[in-house]
Amino acid sequence: MDSHKGLRQGASRRWRWSRRGAEGASSALVVAFLVLVVAGSPVRAVPQQAAAPEAQDVAYQIDPAHDGNQPNETVPSSAVQEWNHYFGAAVSYPLIVGDRVFVTVSNTPGDCPEHCQNYGSQLYALDASNGNILWGPVAIGAVASYYSSLAYDNGQVFVTSSTDIAAFNATTGSEDWSNPGGEPMGPPTASDGVVYVSSGFDSVLAFDESTGKQLWDSDVLGGNVSSPAVSPTGIYVSYSCEQVFDLAPSTGDLVWHYAADNDYCSGGGGSTPVLSDNLLYVRDAPQGFFSPVVLSATTGQVVGTFSSTTTPAFDGPIMFTMNAGTLQAVDWSTGQVLWSSTGDGTLDSAPIVVGGQVFVGGSSGAVDAFDEQTGAVTWSANAGASIPAPNETAASMLSGLGAGDDLLVVPTTDSLVAYGSSNSNEPPTTTSSTTTTVPVATTTSSTTTTVPVATTTSSTTTTTTLPVPPDTPVGVYGHPVHTTVSTQGAVLSDSCGSAHVTVSVPSGAVPAGSVLSIAPATNSASLKAEIPDGQAYVVSFAVAWAAPDGTSPRATIPLNLDITDPAIRPGDVIYVVAPNGLRSAGIANSPGRLVVEFTTDPDFVLALVPRLISVGRSGSLVRNGVHVALSCGAGVSCTGSASLSIEVTSNGVRHGIVVARGEFSIGAGRTKTALLKATAQGARLLSHHEKRTTELTVKLTGGGQSVHGLCLP
Predict the structure, then answer these.
(1) Whether 156 contacts 129, CB under 8 Å
(2) 112 and 189 part of one domain
(3) pLDDT for 281-324, tens place per residue?
């Protein structure tokens, strides 16, 4: 056990610790939107938090064990929608504590495909009684953060992203501490004064909740997005290929390690394990080769198998699973299927069980409640938008149902909806944090100005005034091309640098008579400065429209933006300029073209993303580490870091885990050998290495993370 932990003990890590006040983490960036926030009621003072009620929802799937069980709640007994808060972007699983609901929300508006790069997110606290904002939004992570997740304990909300971890006061929203480590981290789990996370450097980290001090760092094999299941005696994590670890809560020492036959499997990531009745349920089996396993939480020995594509929920011996749209209740003690249901045929969320009812959501927006004993439907509702299936193994916003404070809280692709058992006849409260955007900026004044745009109708020239956002830098955009939208819609094209831009407006999307314009950026210096490190600026332009009454209403039907440019490659990103920086609006899927839809009038920025086109299939061991050949794609140079976890064995004897890391910088279209260095102790352990295939994790600055199989001699 000591060899497992001691490889990096005492070594300095890249974590930098800071304490900050309520002002947040980042300064203001380029502002190219007029932001109108409708949040219901203003921020109100809240008394210092008293002892937490019994029915808290404090982690993904309700509690630190992730068992999806809220036994002390009785809500809701009928399909009463209490409130609906519209965010216009992807919403995380909620936390529910006392009188408030906590969520993080992607900066990307509307539905975002699974591969979409969700740059940036925000943390909110909502009033549980009406959905109004109590505090927030609070910016989370760096601009280049893909996602965020959260947990609660002892009056604090802990948020992880693809770049850091931070703690916030649950009452005020002020930041208590942060650790900007620059590495991806999975959903946190907080318990008894310690917050635990899986990190992108193949390790599990523990932080003191009150100070942010790192308490321990334990090496593991696998990915970075598994949320630890926590008990007083163990920290359990599971990664791809059924690499499962039990770590001591106080020290991080290895208690046991279970591994499936890795000859059939490679890759990173990891699903959330579930702890119930001293059994650990793990779903990281190589698909097609093994079934998910049930392990003894005490010994790590296999005691059975099960089947579920999402995190299962438990109430005593009854397990509730979701498989390809079918909800099942299974008596774990006998293996008997008690009942099953497909609902409306779209069920996809992880189930939770609350006070004798099982709740699930579907891609149709369906919210269904089932009697846990009989499977009878007790009520059904529709949340008004698709309820996403949880994606536990990718760098995206993790969705899931929540329950507490007499509420069932459901995140959709753009909203947060709460159901309760209110006896009121009043309609549900509807609030919004939607941003309404307006076009090209030519002033930095604090008031809205207008720019005249001439339009010609027959022989008469009239002037239509376009509203201008108040805070965009002066002189960024040139004179726009424009057209008038008819009852049949409109199509408008323009050349912006090397790119050709076409905007298509469907019939009825905006009011007939609206003026549609495209304006290329003529002074792009300020926009180039906002591009994430490692990416290359291509072009930027503003799309805007003004209705006959001078307003810029949100389109009722999405508009289509089609960009062609020979420089575009799959993976390149189109951003919109928002008050807190650039946020991704879409990603290229094919060479030379990028297509996105939008409903507000944003300013777009196109950027090229670095990419590795190949990684040598074999590495070479050297005295102090491993040599790896990396090839960079054309267009953008590749800089970043790589890490390799090597389990060292000889003659069936396990000697420990060696973690080798290194930085690299490779010119566009070039190939270079990178050196991944091990510690002195790790280099000595490599002498025991036997030939095997292991996993290389590569992180490109500005280009995300990838995992590659690597054969070592």
Answers:
(1) no
(2) yes
(3) 998 765 545 678 899 999 999 988 888 889 999 998 899 999 88
* Range(s) of the domain holding residue 193: 35-40+57-388+400-432
Same domain as 670, residue 600 = no
Q: Tell me, yes or no, whether 526 and 667 share the same domain.
A: no
What CATH number is given to the structural domain containing 627?
2.60.40
Domain count across the chain: 3
Q: Within a 10 A sphere around the Cβ of 617, how many other Cβ atoms?
A: 11
Q: Find which of 181-185, 199-203, 636-640 is predicted with most confidence, using mean pLDDT.
A: 636-640
Domain containing 472 — which CATH number? Answer: 2.60.220.30
Cβ atoms 63, 400 nearer than 8 A: no
- Given a cut of 70, is residue 463 above it in pLDDT? no
489 shares its domain with 602: yes
**Whole-angstrom Cα distance, residue 275 to residue 64?**
9
Q: Are residues 339 and 369 in the same domain?
A: yes
Determine the Cα–Cα distance for residues 524 and 537; give it in Å rounded to an integer: 9
Q: Which residue has the higher pLDDT, 281 or 711?
A: 281
**CA-wise closest residue to 207 among 239, 177, 248, 171:** 177
Exposed e or buried b for every residue in 386-417, given b needs 16+ CB within 10 A?
A: bbbbbebbebbbbbbbbbbbbbbbbbbbbbbb
Among the three residues 580, 608, 636, which one is the final residue of a domain in this structure?
608
Supply the mean pLDDT for the chain: 77
Cα–Cα distance measured from residue 75 to residue 96, given in angstroms and rounded to the nearest whole number: 13
- The span from the CA of 706 to the CA of 374, in Å, is 45
Determine the 3-state secondary structure of 227 from DSSP: coil
pTM: 0.57
Distance CA(235)–CA(298), nearest Å, equals 11
Retrieve residue 549's tokens.
Answer: 């009454």
Distant-in-sequence, close-in-space partners of 280: CB < 8 Å, separation ≥ 6: 229, 236, 238, 244, 246, 273, 274, 294, 295, 296, 297
3-state class (DSSP) for residue 49 = coil
State whether residue 21 is helix, strand or coil.
Answer: coil
DSSP state of 201: T
DSSP 474-535: TT-B-PPEEEE-BTTBEEEEEEETTEEEEEEE-TTSS-TTPEEEEEEBS--HHHHTTSPTT-
Same-domain status, 622 and 495? no
**Amino acid identity, position 248:** A
Q: Which residue has the tokens 């140079």?
A: 637
In a domain, 442, yes or no: no
Which structure tokens are listed for 467? 């509203």
CA dihedral for 47, 49, 55, 61, sign (positive or negative): positive
* pLDDT tens digits for range 552-589: 888 999 999 999 988 888 888 898 887 777 888 888 88
Maximum Cα–Cα distance across the chain = 91
CA 378/CA 76 separation, integer angstroms:
10
**Among 597, 431, 585, residue whose Cα is nearest residue 506:** 597
Is the predicted pLDDT of residue 40 greater than 60, yes or no? no
CA 627 to chain centre: 33
Query: Which value, in Å, is the radius of gyration of the alpha carbons in the chain?
Result: 26
pLDDT score at 55: 75
For tokens 């906590």, the residue is 102
Does one domain contain both 503 and 412? no
Instruction: Tokens for 200, please give them.
Output: 């992108």
Q: Look up residue 590 and give its DSSP letter.
A: B
CB-CB contact of 341 with 327 (8 Å): yes
**Final residue before a domain boundary, out of 560, 592, 608:** 608
Give Cα separations from 682 to 1, 633, 644, 646, 652 (angstroms): 15, 32, 12, 10, 19
- How far is 548 from 297, CA to CA, in rounded Å? 66
236 with 243: CB under 8 angstroms? no
Say if residue 191 is in the same domain as residue 67. yes
DSSP result, 300-315: --EEEE---SS--EEE
Helix (H) or strand (E) holding 696: strand 692-700
